[in-house]
Design brief:
282 residues; alpha/beta; Metallo-beta-lactamase, Chain A; 2 domains; 6-stranded mixed β-sheet; 9 helices; 36% helix; globular; binds zinc ion; Metallo-B-lactamas; RibonucZ/Hydroxyglut_hydro; hydrolase activity
Length: 282
């Protein structure tokens, strides 16, 4: 079911057990804009069915926050102008080149181009897979793009991110709401979960320059400003003590610096920053 955040903003909450990220709907006097397309045809269809129950203006735009499969594979269901940043446009090309029949999917999984979970979702939630081809984006921007939906401006910006190099965020100044996609998360490289440490501070600065009260995250649904500040604080506190690929040294440094043990979140982040050093040293 859609959750209503304000008269102009709705979202379909994430479902972790089915790898479904949060999807957004923003509307102005004339047009609606969608944020992320869902992880497959089925997810997109269910979202569109929910939107039909509202008295929303026609859907004119679909913004993709980044080129991860769970945010893009529902794209073909939307009769809308698809907007991405230039890096997302490059990364989507791989998914456009794919075939979606069983043999091809298995080959991508074997080559580590696709996760098993992704293959399973595609197999159960994209009908007519043998002829399925992912559409192309229509509008490609470099750094920022403003869209007016009719007395409702959306500011799109490609920002630096600990998750991917192609993260777009969407800020709606009237509502003080910001859609972050997955940008605030870490990522997995060669089976190691890590946060791109060098991009943490630039990312937080990129986000905090917007005066947001509500934050929508790809796999968390919604956070208020206080929750978000705690998240940034824990990440920053953890990052400050990680200067090498040694977990032991980092934990010692934490205790020396803050005169206490890290909490569970901080410990998780310290390990992720340590992993970032391990990946960089390879
Ligand atoms: Zn992602």
């Amino acid at each position: 079911m859609l959750n209503k955040l304000s008269d102009a903003i709705y979202y379909l909450p994430n479902e972790d057990n089915r790898d479904r990220p949060t999807l957004g709907l923003i509307y102005g006097d004339q047009w609606s804009l969608i944020i992320d397309s869902g992880n497959a045809t089925q997810h997109a269809k269910e979202f569109l069915q929910e939107i039909e129950k509202l008295n929303a203006p026609p859907i004119k735009y679909l913004v993709i926050t980044h080129a991860h499969w769970d945010h893009i594979l529902g794209m073909n269901e939307f009769d809308a102008t698809i907007i991405v940043n230039s890096q997302t446009n490059e990364l989507i090309k791989e998914w456009q080149s794919y075939s979606y029949d069983d043999n091809s999917l298995q080959k991508y999984v074997n080559n580590n181009q696709m996760s098993t979970q992704c293959m399973k979702i595609i197999q159960t939630e994209i009908p007519s897979r043998n002829t399925f081809k992912l559409n192309s984006p229509d509008v490609i921007f470099e750094n920022t793009l403003n869209i007016d939906l009719g007395n409702k401006v959306c500011i799109l910006e490609r920002i630096q991110s600990t998750h991917t190099d192609d993260s777009t965020i969407i800020y709606i100044p009237d509502e003080k709401v910001i859609f972050l996609g997955d940008c605030a998360y870490g990522t997995t490289t060669n089976s190691l979960f890590h946060f791109k440490q060098s991009l943490l501070t630039p990312m937080i600065q990129d986000i905090q320059k917007y005066d947001a009260e509500w934050f929508l995250l790809g796999h968390e649904s919604i956070c208020d400003a206080e929750e978000m500040n705690i998240y940034w604080e824990e990440l920053t506190t953890a990052s400050r003590v990680v200067k090498s690929s040694s977990l032991e040294n980092s934990l010692e440094c934490f205790k020396a610096e803050y005169k206490r043990d890290p909490n569970d979140n901080e410990f998780f982040f310290i390990k992720a920053f340590v992993n970032d050093h391990i990946i960089k040293s390879k």
